[in-house]
Specification:
There is one protein chain. The protein is of the alpha+beta class. It has 2 domains: 29-216 and 398-460, no CATH class; 221-381, no CATH class. It has helices spanning 13-22, 44-50, 57-67, 71-77, 79-86, 132-149, 154-176, 180-185, 193-196, 203-217, 221-228, 248-251, 257-272, 277-284, 343-354, 396-415, 420-427, 432-460; strands at residues 95-98, 107-111, 117-121, 128-131, 188-189, 229-232, 235-238, 245-247, 287-294, 305-311, 318-326, 363-368, 374-381. Strand 10 (305-311) and strand 11 (318-326) form a beta hairpin. Helix 6 (132-149) packs antiparallel against helix 7, helix 6 (132-149) packs antiparallel against helix 16 (396-415) and helix 6 crosses helix 18. The chain is globular and about 70 Å long.
């Protein structure tokens, strides 16, 4: 497309590279190494509990209990804390679509629409247009904490975190050399692992990974039905396992069943409008069967999440959807707000920007609850070949390999919507940035452990309620 007459032509590829490199003068790469909390830093527990006001009250203590399992699980639920801290750190001024919660447990495998198994980011609740380096800092800090949780030596943890950043830098430089369409088609298929990363890990780790992938491939709607439902009077219904899984009939006992069904049908019809016509047609070929509230994740616990069972041809052709509440991103306190009024749409549009291949049933809708409050939701399949690394049993060499995959994936996700040549020019060919972020990761992991201790103290003195083991 030619430039509009009189408009300023966009900078050339070389110009964007030089512009990125020039930013080092104002924001040296070494400046990212520092984490020095201000003396008037906010109360991390107060920031966490402030999020509870909009959550389901009887689930909040479960969230706190899950965060108390370890400093690593605390980190998974503490995106708001880190966002507030990152807002005080050095910024390059280059923005892209960011995940906002790019810790290493938010990467994994899933089945793409063409049924190939791909590795990608898989959580976008906090996604927003913002500084690319915020995601890059959150990833290696999570690697450091995962290594601490496993008891790895400091050197092993440091190598894993550094390699995540190095892989990000190298992948961004390669992305900068690609054409726009070629970049858009780039993705990490599991079958490509040994080709793209020939020195990824010993063969035994590759075999372990393939076993995990095979397990993930068995996680589909049929599997979800077998795990989450039972047959009652000839009909399939969600099992009752409060508070983790509660059928809608138990939550709304005074609402007649036919009214519940009609309400969900209306929801599905409206949500379908956010999808392409062919996918909307596929959705509407299914009929509603049942719905339940389901507790998911760590940081998401307390936000409203529903599982919806549909049937296609017959009972042996199920479709299990998840409708998850979307609230304002924790980044929006520190960055310009999303242009989308519906936060479900914010999540979906961000996911489509960052993922190489997204769920065909991905969409959004706004729902008025029984309390009269309007809430935004996004919808996707509950299980579609989804799986992730078991970070509780991973070995040092496996963590290094996994960190590299995450770094590569994050770079590709950022490159799709941001100035990849400017970022690559800033990063450069040396390891200055890698070492700086590794230092930050160690310092911030220490901060996270102090914040974790503060939550433990608040629970111990009764200020915060937590339920363990749920």
């Amino acid at each position: 497309m030619s430039a509009t007459a009189g408009a300023e032509a966009p900078p050339s590829a070389d110009g964007r590279w030089r512009s990125g490199r020039a930013r080092r003068n104002d924001v040296p790469r070494s400046s990212h190494a520092t984490w020095d909390p201000p003396s008037d830093r906010f109360d991390p527990v107060a920031l966490l509990t402030a999020q509870d006001a909009a959550r389901v009250p009887d689930l909040v203590s479960i969230r706190h209990g899950r965060m108390l399992v370890s400093p690593f699980t605390f980190y998974r639920g503490a995106a708001a804390i880190m966002a507030a801290d990152l807002a005080q750190t050095a910024r390059t001024g280059i923005h892209t679509q960011i995940c906002g919660d790019a810790h290493c447990a938010n990467f994994g495998v899933f089945a793409s629409p063409d049924r190939r198994v791909v590795f990608d980011l898989n959580d976008f609740d906090e996604t927003l247009h913002g500084p690319w380096e915020w995601d890059v800092k959150r990833l290696p800090a999570s690697v450091e904490l995962a290594g601490r949780h496993r008891g790895f030596p400091r050197a092993a943890r440091g190598r894993a975190g550094t390699e995540a950043v190095r892989e990000y830098r190298m992948a961004m430089r390669r992305a900068a050399a690609l054409g726009h369409v070629a970049l858009w088609y780039t993705r990490l298929e599991i079958d490509q692992l040994t080709t793209l990363f020939p020195n990824l890990a010993p063969q035994r780790n590759i075999k372990n990974a393939r076993r995990s992938i095979a397990k993930a491939q068995r996680k589909d709607s049929l599997r979800a039905v077998s795990k989450l439902t039972e047959r009652v009077n000839g009909s399939v219904r969600f099992v009752s396992q409060p508070p983790l899984l509660v059928p809608v009939a138990e939550l709304l006992p005074e609402t007649p069943a036919h009214e519940q069904v009609e309400a969900v049908k209306e929801l599905l019809a409206r949500y379908g409008q956010s999808m392409a016509a062919d996918r909307r047609h596929l959705l509407h070929m299914h009929r509603f069967v049942d719905m339940a509230r389901k507790v998911v994740g760590v940081g998401s616990v307390g936000t409203r999440a529903w599982v919806i069972l549909l049937e296609g041809r017959d009972a042996d052709d199920p479709l299990m959807l998840q409708a998850k509440e979307a609230v304002a991103s924790v980044l929006e306190t520190h960055l310009p707000r999303s242009p989308y009024r519906n936060h479900g749409r914010r999540v979906v549009e961000g996911q489509r920007f960052m993922q190489a291949a997204s769920d065909i049933f991905l969409g959004w809708e706004t729902v008025t609850g029984i309390d009269g409050q309007r809430r935004d939701f996004y919808v996707r399949q509950l299980w579609d070949g989804k799986g992730s690394a078991d970070l509780t049993t991973i070995e040092p060499e496996g963590l290094r390999a996994y960190a590299r995959l995450c770094g590569w994936t994050l770079a590709r996700a950022h490159a799709r919507s941001g100035d990849r040549r400017g970022i690559a020019g800033y990063l450069g060919s040396g390891d200055t940035f890698d070492r700086a972020i590794a230092d930050f990761a160690t310092a911030y992991a220490d901060q996270n452990e102090r914040d974790y201790a503060a939550l433990r103290a608040a629970v111990a003195d009764g200020t915060v309620e937590a339920v363990a083991g749920v």
